[in-house]
Design a protein that fits this description.
Helix content is 39%, strand content 13%. The strands form two sheets. An eight-stranded parallel β-sheet has the order 3-4-5-6-7-8-9-10, with helices on one face. It comes from Gracilibacillus oryzae.
């Protein structure tokens, strides 16, 4: 078990179970150095998006690393104002151009824009068939969005990336995705470090001689959730993934489950301002 441990998507593509997220990582040197240090540590999964405005720096850091492109799993996403059939087909080309790549490993619809996402999905299916994306999926989709998508889809989403951390466990969405063989990936997996002082995290950190962040990442790993903790600091990047030398016992996992409050830190997908 290591940073190269993978999960298998429903099309057979392997995705590293743990990656680096770069949301709100500033374009330029911060994004470049963040990805560079993560790759040096051993990360092989980088998650960006056109909305983050740092694809260019992510691509440059990957290229400069000297690691073969096929050894790094890269995700990007189509933003809300790029949705629609023709718009999404143009958006992937812009992303690939900024990344300096011929393909991404995973291309996601960033949010379920009402009246647009099924059309966008048709474009993603073509993008997938063309080889510009090795896998396709969605982000921030709830079961009712997925039901609508699946009715129109020829290709099933391979991933649903959602806000998921101990206080927001999204059981209904996770169950739906499990039933449809769609893997769950967590954004804001550490709950933005906003409740590391929670008694359960403190207790388990003490018990296992680990940090609250490591307890959370280990819980997600053992739960079969793909996770992309973000940090721009190398020592934190190392800390976040130093989780392979211990295991949470059943009672520990139960305590983590008990932390759920369905408490969002980001927007609810049905309350997001899509401007439509």
């Amino acid at each position: 078990m290591s940073l190269t441990t993978t999960r298998t998507l429903n099309n057979g593509t392997k995705i590293p179970a743990i990656g680096l997220g770069v949301y709100k990582v500033e374009a330029g040197d911060e994004a470049y150095q963040s990805v560079k240090s993560a790759l040096e540590i051993g990360y092989r999964h980088i998650d960006t998006a056109s909305f983050y405005a740092n694809e260019e720096d992510v691509g440059k850091a990957i290229k400069d690393s000297g690691i073969p492109r096929e050894d790094i799993f890269v995700t990007t996403k189509v933003w809300n104002d790029e949705q629609g059939y023709e718009e999404a087909k143009a958006a992937i080309d812009r992303s690939l151009d900024r990344l300096g790549m011929e393909y991404v490993d995973l291309y996601l619809i960033h949010w379920p824009v009402p009246g647009k996402f099924t059309e966008t999905w048709k474009a993603l299916e073509e993008i997938y068939q063309s080889g510009k994306a090795k896998a396709i999926g969605v982000s921030n989709f709830l079961p009712h969005h997925l039901e609508e998508l699946l009715q129109a889809a020829e290709t099933k989403p391979m991933v649903n990336q959602i806000e998921l951390h101990p206080q927001l466990q999204q059981d209904e969405t996770r169950t739906f995705c499990q039933e449809h063989n769609i893997l769950i990936e967590a954004w804001a997996p550490l709950g933005k470090a906003s409740y590391f002082d929670h008694p359960v995290l403190q207790e388990l950190a003490e018990k296992h001689q680990k940090t609250p962040a490591q307890i959370i990442v280990r819980w997600q790993y053992q739960s079969g959730i793909i996770t992309i903790p973000k940090s721009v600091h190398k020592h934190r990047q190392e800390e976040n993934v130093d989780i392979f030398d211990f295991e949470l016992e059943t009672e520990d996992m139960d305590k983590m489950t008990g932390m759920n409050e369905e408490k969002r830190l980001g927007k609810h997908p049905d309350e997001f301002d899509y401007g439509v």
